[in-house]
Amino acid sequence: MAKKIDRALVADTALRLLNEVGLEGLTLRAIAKELDVKAPALYWHFKDKKALLDEMATEMLRRMNADLGELPARWQDAMTTAMRGLRAHLLRYRDGAKVYSGTHFTDTSYADPMERYLRVLTAEGFTPARAARAWFTATSYTIGYVIEEQAMGPDPAGGEEGYDLAARAERLAAYPLAVAAGEAMFRDHDRGFEEGLAAVIAGIDVTLRRS
């Protein structure tokens, strides 16, 4: 008797397998093997890997929404909370930011939280268009930061130590400022994210809210 699978089971399995093999190693064949079914069975639910990635990103978003509580009234606090939450969820998965970036959500799970955050922004003086631009800017910063963060390591799944600053310093011995920049760029990702996010929010306040 054939094993019954559905979209939710396939996406959940794919997200679990992602932490073992990364985005490069995540194939429909590998997922089928994990589910103990033949690869063609998956094509009833997803026509290709891109369609599967869209569903995986949507499932990631659903899980983020499940953690969403009451929003702070102050827009800076609401945006900071949202971006911290987005980063934390993306970091739960190996290559999580790459999976999430550029995909198309398969349902409207994104609409309610987006509406709630945009209401906070418009209530504090943003026009709807500038609220949207502010939200997109902060989200793009966060996703981009995590893509770089996950690419640099350390990678617990692969056992890699992360970027070798000593080797980098040797290569750039003639460029002392570039050497010193390595510590800020490739170490203490938590601090780096927070400082960058604060700069993004301060810039949004000046260029999109006040102007």
Structural notes for this entry:
The chain has 211 residues and is mainly alpha-helical. The protein contains 10 helices and no strands. The chain has helices at residues 7-25, 28-35, 49-66, 75-90, 96-100, 111-123, 128-152, 165-171, 176-186, 189-210.
Please tell me what the overall shape is: flat
Strand content: under 5%
Helix content: 55-70%
Could you report the average pLDDT, rounded to the nearest whole number?
91
SSE class: mainly alpha
> Gap between N and C termini, in Å?
65 Å
Number of helices: 10
Element-level helix/strand string: HHHHHHHHHH
Low-confidence stretches: 155-159
Sheet with most strands: none
Nearest-angstrom radius of gyration? 20 Å
Number of strands: 0
Topology, pairings included?
Blueprint: H1 7-25, H2 28-35, H3 49-66, H4 75-90, H5 96-100, H6 111-123, H7 128-152, H8 165-171, H9 176-186, H10 189-210
How would you sum up this structure in a few lines?
Residues 155-159 have low confidence and may be disordered.
Key words describing this protein structure:
68% helix; 211 residues; 10 helices; mainly alpha
